[in-house]
Specification:
Layout (H helix, E strand, L loop, with lengths): L3 E2 L6 E2 L4 E5 L16 H11 L6 E5 L3 H24 L31 H12 L7 H22 L7 H9 L1
Antiparallel strand pairs: 1-2, 3-4
Helix pairs in contact: 4-5
């Protein structure tokens, strides 16, 4: 039984054996985890890795007993995480409040249902203002509310005999 296999030539890296790892952190992440049996195998990964600066770091594989202890420790941590996740109370489901604005105008023409806000600008504002993230489910609700405000502003401008919505029409629409 071997500890790992060389990421280049697939040769066995036995317990307690000297092996090489890449000095670049992305090559050493848990997800990637590259191990090499020789410096020449490490050099073979460089053309595809496109590192600006890298070197081979010599390491010694753990003994079989050390490795088994590490595996048992990781399994115990996973079990604890799973137990904590099960023990947590699930958040109560909140009903998603979606407002439905009319889909046709007075003439029977289909109204656009486009998003009325610049999503990235809104998310950046909320992040800068309160350090919070914004769910994507906020965008349609906010767009529906903007449509309602615009509809009221159109009604107010029409009542005042204008064909142009002004800022005061929007302010008055917000008071309604």
């Amino acid at each position: 039984m071997s500890w790992r296999h060389c990421s280049s030539c697939r040769a066995d890296i036995d317990f307690g054996m000297i092996h090489w790892r890449c000095s670049v952190s992305t090559c050493n992440s848990k997800r990637t985890g590259l191990f090499f049996c020789s410096v020449s195998c490490w050099e073979a990964h460089l053309p595809s890795a496109h590192h600006r600066e890298a070197w081979a770091v010599e390491e010694r594989a753990p003994s079989q007993s050390q490795w088994q202890a590490e595996q048992a420790d990781q399994a115990e941590k996973s079990e604890r995480r799973a137990a904590v996740a099960i023990a947590r109370e699930p958040e109560p489901e909140r009903p998603l409040r979606r407002t439905i604005s009319p889909t046709k105008n007075e003439a029977g023409q289909e109204l656009p249902r486009d998003v009325l806000v610049v999503v990235s600008k809104l998310k950046n504002y909320v992040k800068a203002r309160a350090g919070m993230k914004t769910s994507d489910t906020v965008i349609p609700v906010l767009s529906d509310e903007l449509r309602k405000i615009c509809d009221r502003a159109v009604r107010i401008a029409t009542e005042r005999g204008r064909k142009t919505i002004l800022d005061r029409d929007v302010r008055d629409a917000l008071k309604d």
